[in-house]
Amino acid sequence: MPQVRVESFTISLDGYGAGPDQDLSHPLGVGGEALHGWALATRTFQKHLFGSDGGEAGIDDDYAARGFHNVGAWILGRNMFGPVRGPWPDDRWRGWWGDNPVYRVPVFVLTNHDRPPLVMEGGTTFHFVTEGAAVALERALAAAAGRDVRVGGGVNVIQQYLRLRLIDELHVAIAPVLLGRGERLFDGVDLHALGYTCTKHEASARATHVVLTRQ
Amino acid sequence: MPQVRVESFTISLDGYGAGPDQDLSHPLGVGGEALHGWALATRTFQKHLFGSDGGEAGIDDDYAARGFHNVGAWILGRNMFGPVRGPWPDDRWRGWWGDNPVYRVPVFVLTNHDRPPLVMEGGTTFHFVTEGAAVALERALAAAAGRDVRVGGGVNVIQQYLRLRLIDELHVAIAPVLLGRGERLFDGVDLHALGYTCTKHEASARATHVVLTRQ
């Protein structure tokens, strides 16, 4: 059975998955980049993001790598795709990731504003879905053709899928930083009542990694 | 300078310092005991709570032990002292900890309802303070006579002292459990704006330990 997974989603010690005041120069909100120190240091992210052979092996890299394993499609929220809000003024915004995005599979972007599919280099096509989270997942599962679907975020999108009990497993990294404000991953989501438990728990020098599994 | 410290305060992965529905049989709220697995396994807690020579050494025990080092007085919220709410019906409630409580120093209990001091065995005296958090701290510092003051909790009391910027250092343990509901330690407290940063971060098999320090 294909799984629906959240991977390498990082929160601060005070629970925020993004900082406040997101804009073009702060895609993760003010202070939000500090969340991702653990990921940027890994071989996996160095390779996927920068085509570099640098980066470290170890616990952090093991978690980063599993996030790209057997993923046949992604789902992203519109705010994660870009800073444009409201109707698309034109088709110029093509994501944060350049001409050859890291995904290399179909990516379904949840939005209220339709737009034609955007075919990028390297296998990534952005599909814009206006029919809601459940429909986006159906389409993603079909596109993944037996492989898993990774729900990339942001916070609001993950919360929608958690409340629908559609996530099989979440890997959450807890970074040793305090953001103070922003979007809390677990606000208004009672994971205990939804049937999730922590099935794995280990830490590196840069983050604590936990895996939450639906029973 | 004596420090004002929070020690061994445990939260769940979803940020709760106590579960919902506290009562006499659930002093930490429903599910709240699961937070303290790491602490109960330590030598320090086995000795302080049960007079036992059992328990484990290691990271967890190092943190448990530092929590009792150089502490000259404690501050507790009234709900941590007991389940009685509103005016004291009589003086029969003497805390959760038997005739010889673990504190062995003066303990200042924040309450809206005055009550004479309660002298216990072993050096613990419970003083009931109705003049608020700042006054309780003054009295605790005076009683501690140069040693530190440990703010024991619960969540609401720690939040009061954090907002007043009166806590020098917090050791928070993050237990690999999900409570889903309850009291969140960091709700309505912007630790970043208050000037706190994470100065230490390490994990055992049972918990992640972080130290937050006021700059």
The major pleated sheet of chain A works out as: 9 strands, mixed
Structural class of chain A: alpha/beta
- The structural domain count of chain A equals 1
Order of helices and strands of chain A: EEHHHEHEEEHEHEEEE
Oligomeric grouping of the chains: homodimer
CATH topology of chain A: the name is Dihydrofolate Reductase, subunit A
Rg from Cα of chain A: 16 Å
Strand order of the largest sheet of chain A: 5-6-4-3-7-1-8-11-10
What's the shape of chain A?
globular
State mean pLDDT of chain A (0 to 100 scale).
Answer: 94
**Name given to the CATH architecture of chain A:** 3-Layer(aba) Sandwich
Note the beta-strand portion of chain A.
Answer: 25-35%
CATH class of chain A: Alpha Beta
Number of strand elements of chain A = 11
Count the helices of chain A. How many? 6
User: How far apart lie the N and C ends of chain A?
Assistant: 15 Å
Q: How much helix is in the residues of chain A?
A: 10-25%
- The CATH H-level superfamily of chain A is Dihydrofolate Reductase, subunit A
Largest interface: A-B, 29 and 29 residues
List low-confidence stretches of chain A: none
